[in-house]
Every structure is written in C-alpha cells, then in structure tokens.
Design brief:
279 residues, alpha/beta, 2-enoyl-CoA Hydratase, Chain A, domain 1, Lyase 2-enoyl-coa Hydratase, Chain  A, domain 2, 2 domains, 6-stranded mixed sheet, 4-stranded mixed sheet, globular
C-alpha cells in the first residue's frame, strides 16, 4: 500500500507538507453508498503538491475497500480542480530540481500503478500541469463550463512528466495532443469536448450531480465485471487485436463463474433488478 513520503511530495513538485513553506491541503473522503468522492482542498489555486501524499493514501483506501465500486476526484470550490505544481516555489529554489534519472518515480495511480476500479474526474475550473496529469490518469472526465486544461511545462524549459506524453495521445488525436504538449497553451472546456478530452461539459452547478449520476450508472453493474472490462481496455491498448481477444476470452471465462454473473441472469429471467455483491 502507498503511504505519504517525502519522495512522493517531490514527485508531485511539492514540498514536505507542513515543512519548507508549502501550504497544507487536505483530501476529503466522502462515501456515498458504493461511490466515494475525493475532494482536494487547499489555497484558491490548489497546488497539487499540497495534497499528493494524502491523495495517494486515499486512493489506496478506495482500492482496498470492497464496498466502494467507483471514485470521483474533484477540487473544492469553483475556481480550480488543480493548478498544478508550485512554480513560485520552484523559481525561488532556483529550478525544479534535477532528481536522478536512475530512480523510478514512486508508484501511484498517476505514474502507472494499476487501479482497476473506475476513476472519474469532475473538473471544476483550472486543470493545469500536474492537475491535468491527474485528470488524464482518470478513466472519464466531466468538465464544468469554466474549466480550462493545460500542460504548460514546455514553456518553463522542461518536458511534462507524470504520464502526460503517454496518456494524452492515447486519449485524444495525435495532432491535438502534440499541439497541447508543444505549445503549453490552455484550452477551454468546449475545446476539450471537441477534442474528446472530456466526455461532456455541464454548468458549474450541475457538475457533481452529473458526475454522481455517471458513477451511479457504473456501480449499478457488477464490480468484478467492471474492473475486468477496464483492465481489458487498458491492457488491450498495448496488445495486438488477436492477443486482446484471447485475453478477453480468458477474463470472460473467469467472470462467468462468479456469483454476480449468476445473479445477473437470474434477475433477467425473473424480470427484476439484480443485486450484485462483488463475488
């Protein structure tokens, strides 16, 4: 299981919380039935370094809780999902810090640790730098009308990390992805919708209701089948079609032998709503 550490703080471009001048933030963990809402809260323009370690721990908690089947990540208030790393602190320190090319990044959902439970980003305002990278690590993104997306690292002299160059071209077309990565420019919520970076754009006041509705539709399905489907999709991106179909057959054989699969068929036969248990 992941735990907060100084290395993870540095991986987010933040500082030791409560240490060298980085304002403290927090992540609220709000269970709503089978859904959990993680709300990042800090300064008005939330710095991801404030909450990175706690966010890792909360995602661990979600992953380990068999009663939770879907997670929504959002920012507090209306101004920012996350404004990324603390550039002022980096500038005051004389640069972003070199680190070591030999040290792998600490494992977490952003840097590639698998989490097969669904993640939804409810993007409310600025979603920039590491904040945008966090949103890209989620499976589905819903944006408020005032949302803005950007990966500006190139403008400050270094390429983006945290999976942005890998995930963005897998999420949107190559040309738009390169435009975002090579210019560092921000795009509006409507442009993000046009490029399929987000699934839909809604009024600010409707954002969480829409995210909860979507999560509710996901958790209405059997969780083991949902996780298997997510894993098939992501692993399939790295496979040939033939290998992906073979893996789907293996997963399907295992999934059809679950109690949830039997319950789904019973409910269909009896014309009632199924009661899935994740078994």
């Amino acid at each position: 299981m992941l735990r907060p550490s100084r290395d993870r703080d540095r991986a987010w471009g933040g500082a030791d919380r409560g240490g060298r001048g980085e304002p403290m933030g927090q992540v609220h963990y709000d269970k709503q039935g089978r859904i959990v809402v993680l709300t990042m809260e800090g300064d008005t323009d939330l710095n991801i370094g404030m909450v990175g370690p706690e966010l890792y721990a909360r995602l661990d908690e979600y992953a380990a809780d068999d009663e939770l089947w879907c997670c929504i990540i959002t920012g507090a208030g209306q101004r920012a999902f996350s404004a990324g790393g603390n550039l002022q602190r980096m500038a005051a320190a004389g640069g972003p810090g070199r680190g070591s090319v030999w040290d792998p990044p600490p494992p977490n959902v952003i840097t590639g640790q698998p989490l097969w439970k669904p993640l939804i980003a409810a993007v409310n305002g600025y979603c920039v730098g590491a904040g945008c990278m966090l949103a890209l690590a989620c499976d589905i993104r819903i944006a408020s009308e005032n949302a803005e997306f950007g990966i500006p690292e190139i403008q400050y002299g270094f390429p983006p990390g945290l999976g942005a160059p890998q995930r963005l071209p897998r999420t949107i077309a190559l040309g738009p992805a390169l435009e975002m990565l090579l210019t560092g420019d921000r795009i509006s919520a409507q442009q993000a919708l046009q490029w399929a970076l987000v699934n839909r754009v809604v009024p600010q006041a409707a954002l969480m209701d829409e995210a909860l509705r979507l999560a509710g539709r996901i958790v209405a399905n059997p969780p083991l089948a949902v996780r298997a489907t997510k894993e098939l999709v992501y692993r399939g991106l790295e496979m040939s079609v033939v290998d992906g179909i073979r893996m789907s057959g293996l997963f399907g054989t295992l999934s059809r032998d679950t109690e949830d699969a039997r319950e789904g068929l019973r409910a269909f036969k009896e014309k009632r709503k199924p009661e899935f248990q994740g078994r």
